[in-house]
Amino acid sequence: MVGAEEENTGDSHSKALPAGHFGRDGEYLEWLEKDLASAQQSRERTGSPRFIVVGGHRPFGDIRPLHTDLFSQYGVDLYVAGHGHSYSRGSPVNGTTYVMVGGAGCEEMAP
């Protein structure tokens, strides 16, 4: 995804281990917007889904520049992330609550 931290290196962040760019630039955000629009239209038409929940790997700080406006526009209620090896939850931003529920422990980080 253009602008994502791992756009060219994947989660390793190592330029020696190139990764990413699995689609053309902008393809991911186009897909996300279509999916969110569909969920919002369904909720308006039928009342279901009651909540729009999005899941992803990156926590709020990493996705903020590209996602918060879309989440607000389409009424996302909850974003659940991993990545960090801890739990955190902040106050809602434009109606969306952001939660990070990463796994406990990480052998990749120095003690």
What can you tell me about this protein's structure?
Helix content is 31%, strand content 14%. It is α/β, with parallel strands linked by helices and 111 residues long. Strands 1-2-4-3 form a four-stranded mixed sheet, with no helix packed on it. The model has no long low-confidence stretch (mean pLDDT 81).
Give the key terms.
111 residues, 4-stranded mixed beta sheet, 4 strands, 14% strand
Write the layout of secondary structure elements.
Elements (H helix, E strand, L loop, with lengths): L26 H20 L6 E4 L3 H14 L4 E4 L5 E3 L7 E5 L10
Number of discrete helical segments: 2
Globally, the shape reads globular
Spatial order of strands in the largest sheet? 1-2-4-3
Number of strands: 4
What ranges have pLDDT less than 50 throughout 5 or more consecutive residues? none
Question: Which value, in Å, is the CA radius of gyration?
Answer: 16 Å
What is the averaged pLDDT score? 81
C-alpha end-to-end distance? 31 Å
The largest sheet is: 4 strands, mixed
Which H/E pattern describes the elements?
HEHEEE
Q: Classify the beta-strand content into a percent band.
A: 5-15%
Short description:
Helix content is about 30%, strand content about 15%. The chain is of the alpha/beta class.
